[in-house]
Amino acid sequence: MNQLKNKNIKLLRKLFFSTLYLSALTFGGGYVIVTLMKKQFVDELHWIDEEEMLDLVAIAQSSPGAIAVNGAIVVGYKLAGIAGVLTAVLGTVIPPFLIIAAVSVCYQAFRSNQLVAWMLEGMQSGVGAVIASVTFEMASGIVKERNTISLLIMAAAFAASVIWQINTVYIILACGLLGILITFSKRRMKS
């Protein structure tokens, strides 16, 4: 019993520091952290697999709130239940909280500083590259499976957003509904 407790404490400690590290060193929003979460949780720690990562991203995007926090909730719950959720969320929210608190104190000095403005402009370029990388990696996972339905949904969602400029919320809701219908139909066919 004591050995199991020590193992859980080690897992929670590693989860806390992993999410703290990711959150502290990620600039550019939720889509940037997705790449780092994949690298950390799928490639290095092997806590989740590629398919679970795609599900995690879908849940994190479609749930209200920050993608980083929603992703931490999903990973934390999978690994250690409610204790994992609390640990992962705490590790995820501490860095932005401290950074925003520090920036708010020094806001007037930052606001007019040209060097800070140039640095933020440069970071925007890097963020664009990271988001493109995430999109490519996630799309290549779907293409590798050769799942025709997923490919059609992906193409339709892209066209709806880029060509017809449909609100992303409607696209996410439609894709979620399609996912539910496809899952139920597959389960019904197996029965």
TrEMBL record:
Pfam families, sorted: Chromate_transp
Subcellular location(s) of the protein: Cell membrane
Protein keywords: Cell membrane, Membrane, Transmembrane, Transmembrane helix
Domain of life: Bacteria
Transmembrane segments annotated in the record for this chain: 15-36, 84-110, 116-136, 170-185
Main location: membrane
Membrane-topology annotation of the record: Multi-pass membrane protein
Family designation: Belongs to the chromate ion transporter (CHR) (TC 2.A.51) family.
Protein name as it appears in the record: Chromate transporter
